[in-house]
Fold:
Amino acid sequence: MLSEEEMALVVADLHIADGVTSLNYSQYPTDSARQALKQSVLLAHGVSQQQLDTSFMWYGAHLDKYMDVCDRVLEILEERQGNIAAGASAQIALAGDSVDLWPNARHMVGSPRMLSRILTFNVEPDTNWRPGDIYTLQYKVINARNRVASRILADYSDGTTSYRDEPGTSQGMTTAKIQLDSTRTPERVYGYIILDPDRRDYFHLDSISLVRTRRESRPGAFFPSRKFDFGIKPGEKADTAATDSAAASSGTPATAPGKQSDNIAAPARPAAPRTDAPQSVRPEQRAIPSRSSRRI
Structure:
């Protein structure tokens, strides 16, 4: 029987092999071809199919040990992803009409035990940015139960932000495009991919890329996007936040930028009419003289 560490290493490599066969179906079109790849993994570890089956049976009867093996498998896969990402973490400044700027690992494994379910990216301007550049986020989802959605955004120096949402898919390729506004100065392009694995879900995210192309390469193309915070610059946001905080502590309502204060004194109540001034009296209110006061 394999030890926990040996079992974890074998299962991790088998998991990667399964992803390879799913991504390269044309090279592994038959069950025999996929089985040959699996056998090569076992051969590399010096493990027979019988040893693997026996180990699975034992760990299946000892679930606490099997869960420890699963945790170790995830650690191994995450370590390998981290090693790949370390070589691509530096800021990229490349010339050319079509450049892949993705700064992270291009393959990852989604599971219920993953530390974070949001994969983020951030690209800042360099000397090769041009007005109207098109940024394309693309990734391939393999064997997920839920959709893998994404959002790509662009911040500008005037405080505006444009963004594009993609609902994604649970199987296949997803593409999200955003084009920089040529009339404004971009500050960064960033976004995220949302991983929402089921509690029994283990899937792959592969072929992740963020490609920058020139608008001249797509003449007449239009990529719709949405905007928010229009016309509010970052400095104004900070000033407004400080004003709101100070107003909240003093109990005074905050005043929005560019608007007059609402703290205007209420008009004085009209003075009561003078009692010594002649006033009109309705006929029914006039005093009726008594009989004793009438003349005879």
